[in-house]
Amino acid sequence: MEFDGWIEACSADDIALEDVIRFDYGNRSFAIYRTANNEYFATDGYCTHQKVHLEGGLVMGRLIECPKHNGRFDLSTGEAKRAPACTALRSYPVKVASGSVYLKLND
Ligand code: FES
């Protein structure tokens, strides 16, 4: 469901603490993260190093570690934090309301 540019992606409880899920919308794919501190973030789903989805990655604090070569990205900004990843992911505003997670796709 879409409202004022916000897309309802999933239930807040669909993502365990320190975990990540895949969310596909149209022809795009995203990764939505929940940290141990119960913060939610969203980025493009595919690693910028090679086309591997980050849904299989490891959430560590505010970092996601790619499952293929262990490159790391900042969840909140998408900034690449460890080689071989060197190009940032796009990140997206996220809000949680009435038990659902919403993404704003800032095209
Ligand atoms: S595919 Fe993600 S670091 Fe290489």
Automatic annotation (TrEMBL):
Highest taxon listed in the record's lineage: Bacteria
Pfam family, one: Rieske
Domain Rieske residue range list: 7-103
UniProt cross-references to InterPro entries, sorted A to Z: MocE_2FeS (IPR012747), Rieske_2Fe-2S (IPR017941)
Necessary cofactors: [2Fe-2S] cluster
Protein name: Naphthalene 1,2-dioxygenase/salicylate 5-hydroxylase systems, ferredoxin component
Organism taxonomic ancestry: Bacteria, Bacillati, Bacillota, Bacilli, Bacillales
Gene name of the record: nagAb
